[in-house]
Design a protein that fits this description.
Length: about 600
Amino acid sequence: MNCEQVEELLSAYLDATLASEELHAVATHLQSCTQCSNILEEYRQFDTLLARLPRVSPEPALERRIFSSQAYQDLLATLAPEMQDKTNRPTQPQRSVRSERDARPHLVVLSGGRASSAAPEYPATRPVPTVRRATRHTQRMIYILIAAVLLLTFGIGTFISWHFLRQGQTASNTSSITPPAALSQSGPLPAGTYFVFLHDGTLWSASTTTNPILDRLTPGTITVSANWVVRPALPGHSAGDLIAYIDLQQGLLHIIRSDGQNDFTVPQPLLQADVAPAAVWDTSTGQTILTSLAWSPDGSQLAFIADPHNTSSPELFIYTINNNTLQAVPLPAPGAVSLPTWSPDGSRIAFVLSEATTTQIIDYNIHNHSQVAIASYAASSSTDMVFTLAWSSLANTPEITWSLGSPSHIHALYVSTTTASQPQLLAQGDFAQALYRATGENGHSSWLLVTNQAPDATLQEVELNGTIHVLATSPTIGFVQWSPDGSYLDYLDSLYGDTGTLHVINLKTVQDVVVAPAVQADQPPAWSSDSQHLAYATTKTVFIVNLQTLKTQQLTALPEENVQLFWSLVTPSQLLIAGNRQGCYQIDTQQRALTRLIAMSLQGPVQWTQIP
């Protein structure tokens, strides 16, 4: 494509409405053409300018003043030479403006940004002559004139509002001005895959494409809790398209589309109306609510916990996306609900019900609303609790498994089918870490346990059938992780300060490989989505190890300390480095090229979304 052809397609390219062949051709041209890239940037700036304009609904008197003004007449005279019909005969500019409202343009509410729906319909007037494509210079002049008229409209409206405020008058027909929800947002984001992160209480979305897109998803008037969740990917998609989050200021649950549109408040307050949310979040009830968001496996339902009656005994609710219905889960006995956990088929929810010193694990069937108490016991101390609650991957005979104890001191693991009379004890002792995965090597569900026993700690795999495998023994073991497919695990030993020696264990061969010493413990290694590569950081450098060849490759120096490593969901060979000061960088692991994507710090975990 040449520049003239690309310029014709830039607007559609920005809206992501081109066919795949045209999209690829335009993107390829933009990589090597500075002129067209500059024009595309001008379009983005115009979108940003329009998005920042307030929504204005002018009065009829203001319309008459504007369209009767000399400035409007001069504008028509300026545009008239560009208006020609197919015979190249110039049209006659309109020299007078009729007073009837149906014979002149209408001022309409400005929605801001690039249009996402049909254009507003205007009253029928005389036929409009065909307009030939103007030169780029004329187009820019038109853009400037249009922007000037819009800003003039805003200025007059602002002056009128200021005048009324000074006189202390209130009129029912005074136009209201609504600030934009997100200053950087210019309408729905185009289709694609994005990573989402939290920055200063606001959710942001960013792309890893040639021309990165950065957009604010939630308005600055909302403070988003750190425990936001993306719903599971729908069939045929690589990531989810809805985000659930809690507004800390209002105590409300929101669901927003991944393109930043349709921010919806679930019609169930999380707290009683007269309770200040800030006074609750640091309590056990508040933490239970904030960590309760759980999407069903198919993404059609969202389970959450709320305390709308201020009883310090929060309840369980289920919101269904498709029909906009809300259900309160009935409880078999009084108590506080925690840890709602969906079964793999989405037909049941397991949760913990605690009352005084008694704790029960309940299996709730969402179809027939039946409830079964899987286990019931008295807590041995105030810190003794169900720490992890999970399901096995078995569909025919679903099993529920859980750990019991406190952080860094898990003392028991249990498993039970939904029909068993008594739970089975899997392991007992003093464990510093208990990490569960529903689907591991050969489809088995199992736990990883790190013991606290001296002089040596042990790393064990405990399957749900009771089989125990001792995988490693060392004076210090910590920071254990599963690979995404459950076929590998990594851990650090020889811990000294903030570093340790990185190991990888192949669970099929039970081979323990020492990868590297002096690996940063506070910067967890990152597995690629196919579990074939592991990225890790030393004090100053990023490396990756190929699990098939066990060869290590040095990538680049760290742009700053205390970074997150995560792999691109778009391109398998791209690794992302997110810092808390300098922003986010992208590394091409094949070319070892370091590119800065955004200059904004990322706080907390990073999750991926997809816009269909």
